[in-house]
From TrEMBL:
This is Sulfatase N-terminal domain-containing protein. InterPro entries: Alkaline_phosphatase_core_sf, GlcNAc_6-SO4ase, Sulfatase_CS, Sulfatase_N. Residues 35-367 form the Sulfatase N-terminal domain. GO terms for molecular function: N-acetylglucosamine-6-sulfatase activity. It comes from Actinomadura craniellae. Residues 1-22 form the signal peptide. The keyword Electron transport does not apply. The modification 3-oxoalanine (Cys) is found at residue 77. The conversion to 3-oxoalanine (also known as C-formylglycine, FGly), of a serine or cysteine residue in prokaryotes and of a cysteine residue in eukaryotes, is critical for catalytic activity. Residues 400-422 are annotated as: Disordered.
Amino acid sequence: MRKRRRGVLALLLTFSLASSLAACFGGDDGPPRRPNIVLLLTDDQDAASIAYMPRLKRLLTDRGVSLSRYYISTASCCPSRATLLRGQYAHNTKVLTNAPPNGGYAVYHRRGLEQSNLGTWLRGAGYRTGFFGKYLNGYPWGIVPNTHVPPGWDTWVSPVGGNPYEQYYYTLNEDGRLRRFGRAPEDYLTDVLADRVDGFLAKDDDRPFFAYLPVYNPHSPATPAPRHRGMFADVTLPRPPSFGKPGTGKPQELRRLPPLTAREETAWAEEYRKRLRSLQSVDELIGKLIDRLESTDKLADTYVIFASDNGYHLGQHRLGPGKDTPYEEDVRVPFIVRGPGVPAGKTVAGIAGNVDIAPTLAVLAGVSPPGYVDGRSLVPLLRGSVPADWRGAYLLEHGPAPKDAGGNQADRTLEAPEPYRPGWGPKTRTSLYLPPYQAIRTATHLYVEYATGERELYDTVNDPYQQRNIADTDPVAQRLAEQLHRLKDCAGQNCRMADR
């Protein structure tokens, strides 16, 4: 009963804080206006790369709050995006991977998750909603017609054909109408999306708006706009202490990786520069968004949020280009907010993650999130402080996918490409098998349990690059294991109780 009472009090406090934020931009006459919300999401962007985005710093970071401990619960595109839209961990959305049978748009659509998510909540509350960019991996792929517009969106602009990752030669579904684009400079996808969202923001409409803009940059092949191709020629590939080093006590699969080669490092350095170049169009997009909001006198009433769907590793721990691991490079990403009532230039260290985006935006919009939501509202953190009873741990997941009727691994994307035999010799980076895992991240530790039975524990204060596995020697492992076991199958309010 006491825990339930604390939960109710916390919820009331969250709504009170949201009302306080709203009052910051309301007039003296009548009820406060509901805020506008713009959410810009990049694809595979590591936290460090924001240093190469000057407009982001000047217009958002210096004018708002940055969350320094913002994590992605499943560091893979589709599971992360499903979590963002629903406010649920992957073990509850069941979107575990990027493709069927246990992931991708196919699972999201089949389970009816389109019927209740951030878009439907806000549109149902009277918001004008717009979607511009990458939806979920596998949309539409014959599951629905190419003209399908998911529920909850007044304006819909999303690629349905071609290869939008290349930024050229793609087809857009624009409110149920298909339009093909070619290779002309003006066909660069990020610029086209910038133009579409600009028109949405400029529209004369008394309703508050929510614009969700998930761009494709800097996802591989990280194609830059023509005007940015020559930039960063002298920038070198970062080599943190974990670069090329597996560390001690890593899982068997990582210990089998060979040393990095000069050819790999040269190729990855160019990939790194391409990623930075591709982000410049996103940086320009931020400037365009702010300019439009200012010119229409809407900036003071608008929350502008910047985040990424997951991070990216490039040589750390001897890993080739990629994501999916529980390590810092893959799970910690930027999260920056400016808006009414948000202090300028402040960094807040409360633990947060993508499971919190949906309930946060719902509360800001004056909407009560559904009971199935696992995350919590970040409104207290947006005010610049961390409550004393705030979350102490965040759940990280990579599978495991459920078994089929015969007891076999149902999703081949999570199955070892060869029998898993500890003690085997070296292997190539491209054949790396990352076992399914469940983990928790606290302010001081990362604890991981793999499906193979292997465990990892890192003291992230004294070992920030996660090089010394102390799972077998530090008694903290037992306490974190117990908390992980409470979190790994949690749902709804139980998640918010188990993560303290």
